[in-house]
Amino acid sequence: HKKLSVLTPMGLAVMGYAKGDVIDWEFPGGAKSLKVTEVKQIKTKSNQIQL
Q1: Closest Cα partner for 20 from 37, 6, 7?
Q2: Residue 3 vs residues 10, 16, 42, 49, 50: alpha-carbon distances, Å
Q3: In whole angstroms, what is the distance from residue 36 CA to residue 30 CA?
Q4: How far apart are CA 12 and CA 10, in angstroms?
Q5: Are 51 and 31 in contact (CB under 8 A)?
Q6: What does the pLDDT look like over 4-51, one tens digit per residue?
Q7: Residue 23: what pLDDT?
Q8: Gyration radius of the chain over CA positions
Q9: I want to staple 21 with a disulfide (CB 3.0 to 4.6 A). Which of 9, 17, 35, 45 is the partner?
Q10: Could you tell me the pTM of the whole model?
Q11: What secondary structure does DSSP assign to 5-26, as a single string?
């Protein structure tokens, strides 16, 4: 399964993108175009973070 966490640099970069959007991303082997195929919000028991 090709999943992307918002805790990764790429995940942060694509926040706000929608299904069907295309982004260009630099990988060590060269640039690639990636298409957003699905966006899901994972529900948690609590939306709060304790500091």
Answers
A1: 37
A2: 11, 16, 12, 23, 26
A3: 19
A4: 5
A5: no
A6: 888 888 888 888 899 999 999 999 999 999 999 988 877 766 655 555
A7: 92
A8: 13
A9: 17
A10: 0.63
A11: -TTSHHHHHTTT--TT-EEEEE
In a domain, 13, yes or no: yes
Residue 24 counted as domain residue: yes
Cα 18 to Cα 35: distance, rounded to the nearest angstrom: 10
Query: What's the pLDDT score for residue 47?
Result: 55
**Domain annotation covers residue 48:** no
**Amino acid type, 47:** N
pLDDT at 31: 96
- Do 6 and 12 touch, CB atoms closer than 8 A? yes
Q: How far is CA 18 from CA 7, 11, 15, 22, 45, in A?
A: 18, 13, 9, 9, 25
